[in-house]
Amino acid sequence: MTSAVRRCSCDGPQGRQGTRAHSGLAGTCRLHRPTGKGFYLADDLLQEAGDSLMMKLGEAANRLSRLGVLAPEGVQWAIAVANRNFIIHRYDEINRAITWQTLSVDRPEWKASLAPLFQAADAAIEGESDGAIGSR
To answer: What would the pLDDT profile of 94-108 be if each residue is shown by its tens digit?
Structure first.
């Protein structure tokens, strides 16, 4: 039986077996695995992972929109929801060049725009946790 975690060729004979960053396939760690559009377009698993991420973002955007949360500048809930719906219902028509653009350019921009909302949510959750402990 072979281990699911393989040694990375970048670490020499000892490797960093078991560390999160060095748990890649075929002896190549995630830190040193080739990246970029060409690899995304050639890797069905990366494409499925990207689809999953976009579907989750679209569902989150749908829920936030229904709760009346205003989208920050540079973010449009409706576009994320439409993208989710397209991926789910018209998966046979997905244009991988467009999904690459969404994942490599739009997603990082959204992350930056949404950061203040995430920070506010974390603070609210932390405040609720502190209040719940103190009220017992």
So the answer is: 999 999 999 999 999
Q: Indicate the pTM of the whole model.
A: 0.66
SS (H, E, C) the chain: CCCCCCCCHHHCCCCCCCCCCCCCCCCCCCCCCCCCHHHHHHCHHHHHHHHHHHHHHHHHHHHHHHCCCCCCCCCCHHHHHHHHHHHHHCHHHCCHHHHHHHHHHHHHHHHHHHHHHHHHHHHHHHHHHHHHHHCC
Domain boundary assignment for the chain = 1-33, 35-134
